[in-house]
Amino acid sequence: MNTKHNFTHRKYNILIIISFITIIIGCNDSDDDRTTLTGDDYYQNIAEGYLSNMTLTEKIDVVSGSDIGSDADPINLKNTAWGAVGTINGVINDDLDLPAVKLSDGPAGVKSAPYLVDEDLSDSYATAFPIGSLLASTWNTELVEELAQKLGAEAKELGTDFLLTPGMNIQRNPLAGRNFEYFSEDPIVSGKMAAAIVNGVQSQGVGATLKHFFGNESESNRLYVDVVATPRSLREIYLKGFRIAIDESEPWSIMSSYNKVNGSYVGHRKDAMTDILRNEWGFKGFAMTDWGADDVANDTDSPAKLMKAGNDLVMAGGDAIKEDLQASVESGDLDESIIDQNVVRILTQAQKTPSYSNYDYSGVPDSETSIDVARRAGTEGMVLVKNDSALPIDGDSQTVAMFGVAQYATYKGGLGSGNVLAKYTIDIATGLSERFTVNEDLMSWYQTYFDANKIAHYDSWGPLAYYEIDEASVTDNSDLETLLTESAESNDVAVIAISRQAGEGADRTETEGDYYLSADELEMITQVSSAFHEQSKKVVVVVNNNGVIDTSQWSDLVDGILIAYMGGQEMGYEVADLLSGDVNPSGKLAQTYPANYTDVPNADSFPGVDEDGDGDVDKIYYNEGIYVGYRYYTSKDVDVAYPFGYGLSYTTFTIDKASISNNTLSDGYSGQLTLSATVTNTGGISGKEVAQVYVTAPEVKLKKPTIELKAFAKTSELNPGGSETLTFDISSFELASFDPNGDEWIIEPGTYKVYISNSSDISDTTPISFSVSQEIVVAETTPGALSTTDNSIVDVDVE
Ligand code: BGC
Question: Could you tell me which residue ranges the Fibronectin type III-like domain spans (predicted)?
């Protein structure tokens, strides 16, 4: 099954063999023909030549993965990648010497650990970058691309050919266990961020993999759960980002998800894997399954089914899959031409990788430059959601008292395949104590408490993953109570750290200690606030979280709240950069913080229903249709704690002079709308601002959310009084809605209102408008694709 969990890469303690192989090109075409080809056509031509020199068995080896955790060693592995979680087999015969190609996780850094296996590389670590949710909150695609260049460069130095990143499922519900790996509740943000990651990684000659295509918005029974949803909601919310990423970055590969959609495993759905992905969208890379997806379907012809639907590579692979595929071809169930096509698709992309050019990787990434961009992105993505004159803290004149075990139990990232085995995590205690004068007695009390009570949890690869620890109860600890009273008298500001961990394989829960604060955490905030407020001093909470938590219960008790998410290994320094004002906050939430969990439009249906009573959820109904996140709250006028797109700065900005500079929407898919607006820093210190373009579209055939985000842009650092004119391109596809009756994407006629605002709260923004005189068909789609026979799910309207 999931071989990753059995993986002991000590077994692969192979010395780096720097091989000077010559790849013998068994290609029939002359070099002259090939010189007229470019890009993928060039590589495809070579791949077709390789194919003509391969036996059926060799072809099956290529399409079935090598199952790195089993006894079946990868074929023609030239050298090791300490972090490979799987490989694509190579080919070695009289005509060909094609190397195995290595695949590694993951989204927040390369999951690789040379230090575990090679004495000479004992100081070689991959960098833990900030998690996806935090990167999305930067709303800065240039910065994310710059970070991804470092991620790709690290992968290359660590011997990786393909990174299994970015994760880009939609944050449909705050409790989904892997939300930390994903970007946003909005498909435009997700698609643009994913494109930035792919462009950055692939600029280094390493492949990127969009995952998990699609419907993997929860972890409960993630291998088997059936997502029941309307084609419109699937297209507009859950698939749209994937298409944007493919259009804007041409990823070399994509990973199909485990789950079912409308009754069939996604990997078995030809309408998804071929009709939509390739025929409608023109995806040119190869599609791999998620790890062990063949076993999941629990039938022996599953590998053939996966291939017939359009998966090219079955991962993690292994002998059983090969035998099944061989039998399917021999019985005539699986046409060999499908295997041929898959081999060509895989080898077309594989040729671009470092393994094919015998890249002499060092095993030692350039951590210094990675750490620099990780820290800049970390500070740019943390979101200040409350500031009643509490921040910034003046390090020259103010002293800090720190509370909460999370100052030591600080989490750099989430768990599972996305956990990075980095060298260190700068905890919040360290970050703040290096920047501010802190209350040493209090800090050492927490250090002692942490050391005495922490429970270590290890990654399946060996290194420490995180510490589990309960908050110290203030009232049960007389020393802590005394320290609290003293610090409220002697220090100027209290900073309280709260943290939340989550990971692959389980969803979070709407319980105390998870979505809600635990009783001890709440008591701590209450006591600290009361003691400091009595002395007219401010209290700031730093939330080190994997995803959305409740703030309504306690936000009134404090003066400042920084949603810090998980900032990678530089976490503590990033928090200090922001609290001190060394960096002016400019992050904006890429997901809504609801006022109450029960307000979440799918609160009742998450994480699904157990229809057969076996204790596992079987179906998850996406009843809210396209009304996910802010699309719901704004349409239904539901108050939220902090809206999508929201985030404070230490300065103030205006956004004005909004205008439409170009409109070629009538050109169908290639049409676009170009807008501009001027952002001015009206406050006293320099900073950056995000301008977000929300559109209210006319409703002719289709009901629509009150507003939908269509574009965004971020300024550079603006000095006080400085301004910048931003431009926004909205493609016709981004503007369009899906008409399920016509099986097409359309832009409806009428007047469109456009709000350029600094959050989804557009109440103070004056819109501009433009008109569309007649319906524009942007794209035709496959009739009936993704349809459901379940009558209980229909496109809903929210008024
Ligand atoms: C996860 C993928 C991951 C793969 C390899 C799967 O269980 O869902 O995201 O890339 O394992 O580790």
Answer: 689-760
